[in-house]
Write a structure and sequence with these properties.
- The chain has 309 residues and is α/β, with parallel strands linked by helices.
- 33% of the residues lie in helices and 12% in strands.
- It has ten helices and eight strands.
- Helix 6 links the parallel strand 6 and strand 7.
- The protein binds (1E,3Z)-4-hydroxybuta-1,3-diene-1,2,4-tricarboxylic acid (0GY).
- The site of (1E,3Z)-4-hydroxybuta-1,3-diene-1,2,4-tricarboxylic acid has 11 residues, from loops.
- (1E,3Z)-4-hydroxybuta-1,3-diene-1,2,4-tricarboxylic acid (0GY) binds next to loops.
Length: 309
């Protein structure tokens, strides 16, 4: 089937620069997607946008170019609950990719088992109104209790202003919860102001809550720097991401968000995004936790080394 990309939607950056920042050995890009290709894996009828194709081969080429060892591929809303493109990518990765799926309450035990065998270790609940129609909470609760039995976690995507209303629902979930993109703060507000303090309190009071410190390009009002490697890229996001990394160093993840759905003003250079990491994780120890230890604990726990006796 042929698909026309939504007008105004930018294509992903074709020739990303080589990062100057040397990633630690075994670094994981823990938030990225594959889109189609639409001819093989059609986009979902209920989607709110049609992306440009972004295949697993292109994702794996980016992984190698940037210097990552592994990927966590998150199901994007344009594929609805049809996880075939993501599963195909996980299966073709030689164990270098794990996945986060979207499922409906009618998913069978066999389907969940197949997803697990392919490398899926979580489901995503999306509350961003421009991306999805509302799913009733009782359906999400039902899914949560089923995936908890598999030892999976739940990724949640929401806007900061919606946290008060979602708080009770999130804190009743029975699994580890991973929040996308620092809970999407409004970075024009103070980093120590009531809105971001609430997010910090959310994580402080619930030690099963993790955060991805991803997507400065989505949150920033100051934007990318003019030149690659310029230290001030996305500078208004730095204090927010840094506060979370330093307060909760064992519960943070990082990812590129390639191929960056719904970008209309600028498309980030993925090399520049990698160069942003040392601004928010300023020591080698914090970088090791953010990029290796934490994602390994969540997605490849079976490979954790036993501490020597
Ligand atoms: C992201 C962000 C976005 C889109 C999706 O699944 C999606 O369609 O997550 C967005 O538009 O903010 O994490 O990819």
């Amino acid at each position: 089937m042929k698909f026309e990309k939504t007008p105004g939607w930018l294509d992903w950056y074709e020739n990303p620069s080589k990062p100057r920042f040397r990633l630690p050995r075994g670094a994981i890009d823990a938030h990225c997607h594959v889109f189609g290709p639409g001819e093989t894996f059609p986009y979902a009828p209920e989607r709110k946008y049609t992306p440009c194709d972004a295949s697993r081969q292109q994702l794996f080429a980016l992984r190698d170019h940037l210097g990552f060892a592994r990927n966590v591929i998150v199901q994007a809303t344009c594929h609805g609950a049809d996880n075939r493109a993501m599963v195909d990518a996980c299966l073709a990765s030689n164990g270098k990719a794990r996945g986060v799926a979207t499922v409906r309450p009618n998913v069978t035990e066999k389907e969940l088992g197949n997803l697990h065998a392919a490398g899926v270790r979580g489901v995503r609940f999306n509350f961003v109104k421009r991306l999805v129609d509302v799913t009733p909470r009782d359906e999400l609760t039902e899914i949560a209790s089923r995936v908890a039995e598999l030892g999976w976690h739940i990724v949640v995507y929401f806007e900061a202003q919606d946290l008060p209303e979602l708080w009770e629902f999130f804190t009743a979930l029975p699994t580890t919860i991973v929040v996308d993109h620092v809970g999407r703060p409004d970075v024009s507000k103070p980093v120590n102001g009531p809105e971001f303090d609430l997010f910090v309190r959310f994580m402080r009071e619930h030690d099963n809550i993790w955060s991805k410190v991803t997507c400065p390009e989505r949150l920033s009002l100051t934007g990318p720097a003019a030149r690659h490697g310029e230290q001030r890229a996305y500078r208004d996001v730095v204090p927010f991401a840094r506060r979370i990394v330093e307060t909760f160093p064992d519960r943070v993840l990082w990812g590129t968000d390639w191929p960056h759905p719904n970008r209309k003003d600028h498309m980030p250079d993925d090399g520049l995004l990698v160069d942003f990491i040392p601004q928010i994780a300023v020591t080698a120890e914090l970088q090791q936790k953010l990029l290796v230890d934490n994602p390994m604990r969540l997605y490849w726990p079976e490979e954790r080394q036993e501490a020597p006796k």
